[in-house]
Specification:
The protein is α+β, with helices and mostly antiparallel strands and 198 residues long. It is 40% helix and 22% strand. It folds into two domains: 55 residues, no CATH class; 131 residues, Nuclear Transport Factor 2, Chain: A. The strands form two sheets. Strands 4, 5, 6, 7, 8 and 9 form a six-stranded antiparallel β-sheet that branches. Strands 1-2-3 form a three-stranded antiparallel β-sheet. About 24% of the residues have low confidence.
Length: 198
């Protein structure tokens, strides 16, 4: 092993060690000035999870949802935005019947609803039982869902085959992602609730 290789490895280990201890170090991006780092989080790393380069909110762990598939075509985008507006309207109104009609399948509720988290096997739901569970879930989060509907904005829709990911913005909240899936030629909601990008 050459002296240069040993020197580079030593410097790398020192930087990693100092970041792990929470002390301030510096990071110089190519073509950029020095950016201060404290406790392993780069200044300017919007979501403060330590993996950005100090350039924007989005960073390494956000790549997958942000760049999923291909941008939806105009007709697809219109259909997906319409679907999501109907879904969020149903959710804000606590209407589990309408909500169940817009999701990928009743099994989605049985597999992801908190009520069934401790069961070894997801229950088989009917239209009626799906509506009961969804109404309960929507009512628990009513305040949040009403605000989300009011501030609803689609930032990006990426599709790949029968799957897709929608990046949503709700006013000043951090970006959220929601999966969608195509069933019998129509787009359906693939998760009960959107999730904040990490």
């Amino acid at each position: 092993m050459s002296r240069r290789t040993i020197s580079l490895l030593t410097i790398g280990l020192l930087v990693i060690g100092s970041m792990g201890c929470g002390s301030a170090v510096s990071y110089t991006a190519p073509g950029k000035g020095v950016t201060n780092v404290s406790a392993g989080v780069l200044k300017g790393d919007g979501d403060k999870d330590g993996d950005g380069k100090g350039e924007s909110y989005y960073d390494a762990d956000d790549y997958s949802p942000l760049h999923y598939g291909y941008p939806a075509r105009a007709a697809e985008k219109k259909a997906i935005v319409s679907l999501l507006l109907r879904y969020y309207s149903a959710a804000a109104a606590g209407d589990g019947v309408r909500g169940c009609l817009l999701i990928y399948g009743y099994a989605l509720v049985g597999e992801t609803a908190p009520e069934f988290a401790r069961r070894r096997k997801a229950p088989t739901l009917t239209a009626k039982s799906c509506a009961v569970v969804m109404t309960r879930l929507f009512r628990r989060r009513r305040h949040e869902l009403v605000g989300d509907l009011r501030d609803f904005r689609v930032s990006r829709i990426g599709v790949y085959g029968r799957n897709g990911t929608v990046i949503l913005r709700f006013g000043r909240k951090f970006p959220h992602a929601l999966d969608i899936r195509k069933r019998r030629g129509n787009w359906r909601v693939g998760l009960l609730f959107d999730h904040r990008l990490p």
